[in-house]
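Tip: read the tokens left to right.
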């Protein structure tokens, strides 16, 4: 069974959707460890409540390279095959990415390459986009930039607020993240340049 390492910093709803799919047998994998850089993250409380290995690695005041070394050590200790960023609010160093080549995924609440970075839903609204959505992609050392695995689109409605748009996107996030994990674990894909092609 392939082993997932989930990294989060906050609410953890994407983590919970993945854990639900694992529990219900819809995603063949096991969650080896959930790691948060914030003590108070709701996601880490949820991980403990589910009886999953949950680790807090506080990042404050630690240099990125050193922090990432600790992260890699923790993930390797738990024999993680695939790292899933789920609202993990930190950039990862080149060394971290090299430790897990094409084995780190992220989910972002926009159709990349539109609106990378923070507050993607607000960016979409302010730009006047008519369609937004979410993207699961491989992680490299640039922000929200690696090859795209899956995307889902949602309409942006005239009366949307950041919250209503975020909620519509989140439903799709919860669906496509597990699908993308299943695809990557299946190894039925290849990469050509930036294009991830399902076999
Ligand atoms: C999601 O919108 C995700 O796309 C972004 O951060 C948010 C995390 O939400 N990277 P949650 O912690 O999974 O509920």
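Filled-in amino acids:
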């Amino acid at each position: 069974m392939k082993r997932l390492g989930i990294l989060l910093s906050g609410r953890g709803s994407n983590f919970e959707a993945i854990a639900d799919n694992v529990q219900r047998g819809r995603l063949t994998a096991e969650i080896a460890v959930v790691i948060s850089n914030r003590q108070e993250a709701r996601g880490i409380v949820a991980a403990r409540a589910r009886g999953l290995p949950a680790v807090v690695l506080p990042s404050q005041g630690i240099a990125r390279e050193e922090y990432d070394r600790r992260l890699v050590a923790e993930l390797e200790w738990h024999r993680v095959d695939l790292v899933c960023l789920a609202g993990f609010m930190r950039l990862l160093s080149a060394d971290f990415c090299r430790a897990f080549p094409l084995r780190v995924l992220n989910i972002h609440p926009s159709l990349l390459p539109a609106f990378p970075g923070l507050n993607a839903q607000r960016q979409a609204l302010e730009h006047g986009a008519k369609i937004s959505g979410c993207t699961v992609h491989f992680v490299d050392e640039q922000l929200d930039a690696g090859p795209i695995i899956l995307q889902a689109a949602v309409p942006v409605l005239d009366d949307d607020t950041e919250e209503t748009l975020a909620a519509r996107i989140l439903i799709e996030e919860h669906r496509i993240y597990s699908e993308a994990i299943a695809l990557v674990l299946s190894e039925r894909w290849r990469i050509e340049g930036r294009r991830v092609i399902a076999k």
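Residues 129 and 156 are 7 Å apart (CA to CA). The helical segments are 13-23, 42-49, 64-77, 94-99, 120-127, 162-186.
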